[in-house]
Design goal:
Layout: H1 2-46
């Protein structure tokens, strides 16, 4: 019973990390969409 529980906890931790990564990706995507024009203009002025 104990090894099975350890396996379930590892799976749960993996799911939690996956949700964290997805959450970070969503935040980065929203920020990039919101600031996309400014970022593009800034890079355009730096790199002609």
């Amino acid at each position: 019973m104990l090894p099975e529980r350890a396996k379930n906890e590892k799976g749960a931790a993996m799911v939690e990390y996956a949700l964290l990564v997805v959450g970070i990706a969503v935040v980065v995507g929203v920020a990039a969409a919101a600031l996309g024009g400014r970022i593009s203009a800034k890079f355009g002025s730096i790199i002609p």
